[in-house]
Design brief:
- It contains five helices and no strands.
- It is an all-alpha fold.
- The protein has a single domain, classed as Non-ribosomal Peptide Synthetase Peptidyl Carrier Protein, Chain A (Orthogonal Bundle).
- The radius of gyration is 13 Å and the shape is globular.
Length: 104
């Protein structure tokens, strides 16, 4: 049975595991590029840091291209920090073993 993105997002939040360091690094680079800022923290909020729906859509396309993860737009807005997005991406990539991902 296939889980919905919302169920996977909820699972990712509930496990509270730290996302994979490689996912964090890739997302950090993408965020800095898309938001045109020199640095971001794991808990910066995308919308608060001047992100908007157009930039979010562009970022999701880049995530698909560079990380090979298909993150739904609504899930992206629900997981609006690098930490939460990385956790979501790791869960979407491998829902069965998300809890065994190498911690950050």
């Amino acid at each position: 049975m296939t889980s919905s993105a919302g169920e996977l997002e909820a699972d990712a939040r509930e496990t509270q595991i730290e996302p994979n360091i490689d996912t964090i690094r890739k997302l950090t680079v993408l965020w800095r590029s898309m938001l045109e800022v020199p640095d971001v923290s794991l808990d910066d909020d995308f919308l608060y840091d001047a992100g908007d729906s157009v930039t979010a859509t562009k970022l999701i396309v880049r995530v698909r291209q560079e990380i090979r993860a298909d993150v739904p737009l609504m899930a992206f807005f629900s997981a609006s920090t690098i930490r939460a997005e990385a956790r979501l991406i790791d869960t979407l990539a491998n829902p069965e073993s998300a809890s065994s991902a190498r911690p950050f």
